[in-house]
Amino acid sequence: MEVLEFISHIIKEPGPYQPILAVIKGFRNGAVYGAKIRAPHALVMTFLFKTGSLRSKIWSILEATIQHSRNLAFFVTIYKTITKLLHFLAGEKEKRHSFVAAFIGGYLVFGENNRINQQINFYLLSRILVGLAKLAVEKGYFHAPKTDPFPYFAAFVWGTVLWLFEHERHTLQDSLRSSMVYLYDDSEKWSSFWNFLWHNK
């Protein structure tokens, strides 16, 4: 009972324990967010595109969810631990601390080349490029475009990905390639009304 009262007290008034509690809460939030993001995505993609028994599909969903959840939890823990340690050693927060901590965490957690890590890293890369472009305009390195550049960006992205799919598809990620096969190759094939409108094959 005393232990529970002590824990309850430091959670309400963390004081010197704040950095440790922040790391623990970061682990919790990483695990929960990873599960929330991956579970519905894995559910939809598995039942839409994967073949096999119901048991194998459920296991695949659980496996992907656990991996995403675990990776985010460990990354947040590593990142917060290192940044707080660097802040303590330097006596104040410095901009480079966040990069150093995330660099180490990214290498340790998201450096393994697997399907889940590829998706997460590619997702972040697109956001980084947009963020860096906005920052370059804000800093005055480039002038803000007079018209919305998004239509040209969309045209370039779709033109490039379809060119790669049609002529160099081996270069595309497996999940993207399978989605595009479903959309563009499978729509060329049918043998009856059943697999023309209702069923793909």
Report on this model:
With 201 residues, the protein is mostly helical. It folds into 3 domains: 1-111, no CATH class; 112-141; 145-189, no CATH class. It has 8 helices and no strands. The chain has helices spanning 2-12, 18-49, 54-90, 95-110, 115-138, 150-167, 174-185, 194-198. α2 packs antiparallel against α3 (54-90) and α3 packs antiparallel against α4 (95-110). The longest helix has 37 residues, at 54-90. The N and C termini lie far apart (63 Å). 12% of the residues are buried. The model has no long low-confidence stretch (mean pLDDT 90). It holds the Pfam family Tim17. This is Peroxisomal membrane protein 4. InterPro entries: Pmp4. It comes from Artemia franciscana (Brine shrimp).
End-to-end span in angstroms? 63 Å
- The whole-number mean of residue pLDDT values reads 90
Spatial extent as radius of gyration = 23 Å
| Main beta-sheet annotation | none
Pfam family, one: Tim17
GO cellular component, one term: peroxisomal membrane
InterPro entries: Pmp4
Protein name: Peroxisomal membrane protein 4
Features:
single chain; 201 residues; mainly alpha; 3 domains; 8 helices; 77% helix; flat; Pmp4; Peroxisomal membrane protein 4
List the helices and strands and how they pair.
Blueprint: H1 2-12, H2 18-49, H3 54-90, H4 95-110, H5 115-138, H6 150-167, H7 174-185, H8 194-198
Helix pairs in contact: 2-3, 3-4
Quick overview of this protein structure:
The chain is built from eight helices and no strands.
